Amino acid sequence: MRKILIIILLTAVTQLVSASGDIVLKGVYQGKNLYVMNPFASSGVGFCVIEVTVNGQLTTDEINSSAFEIDLSIFQFSVGDKLIVSIKHKDGCIPKVINPEVLKPQSTYNASNLKVSNDGILTWSTSGESGSLPFIVEQFRWNKWVKVAEVEGKGTAGTNTYAVAVQPHSGNNRFRIKQIDYTRKPRYSKEVRYRSMEPPVTFSPAKPTIEIIFSRETMYEIYDYYGNLVEKGFAARVDISKLPKGDYFLNYGINTETFKKK
Questions:
Q1: Quick one: 7 and 95 in the same domain?
Q2: Which of 55, 141, 190, 255 is the most exposed place for a label (fewest CB within 10 A)?
Q3: Is the model's pTM score more than 0.85?
Q4: pLDDT of 107-143, one tens digit each?
């Protein structure tokens, strides 16, 4: 009889453990609270959510209702602090977080002091960051903005400084930085201009068969006759031996030209 009771108790405990789920949200604090739709349990008795923790701490929110708020302000977080929100719920039902995007990093930076040194280092400072997002460095070349570098943002609200190597072309250069958050809308800094006294890059031969040779290392792009990008990089010599014969467009330095692969 005792063995039967033990088996029944173990079965009940196993069912209790397996009869629950856990929704985990990871992100950063943005000064906003989370809202949860809380359906009834599948048994029809009580609501779905069992408990809510924030960074391992049990919340005091009233979860026994059809909808409730996870009040993050009581934890005295600073904007940009990392969060892990765990919502444990019964089996057979799933609560819904209405606004999970409030934990995603947002692009809130203010950029200043953008400048390019004579040795090709772009530096800038930021303030007001509220989450770590990459900064994308763009350079205006060939009548378009081209990505030339990427730096992970520090994400803290104080003053942050950044530095990255860029490759100025001869003459006047324009650079800017941008950031894209979950809204998919880019935010741009002001442009910084820099004048390089280096002579223009040249290439040869006019009808290459195996490789293109530049007068020095440079950024380049090769497009086929239909406008498809087939090769890009930064080099002084480019192997084109595997390209099919035909006409191509070549972006390099500050120039755009055509060549025929023989």
A1: yes
A2: 190
A3: no
A4: 999 999 999 999 999 999 999 998 899 999 999 999 9
Q: Which of 49, 73, 103 is the last residue of a domain?
A: 103
Which one has a higher pLDDT value, 200 or 8? Answer: 200
In the numeric block, which tokens belong to residue 141?
């070349």
Say whether both 176 and 232 belong to one domain.
no
Give tens-digit pLDDT for 186-236. Answer: 999 999 999 999 999 999 998 898 999 999 999 999 999 999 999 999 999
* 84/10 same-domain check: yes
Residues listed for the chain: 262
Domain containing 137: what range? 110-196
15/91 same-domain check? yes
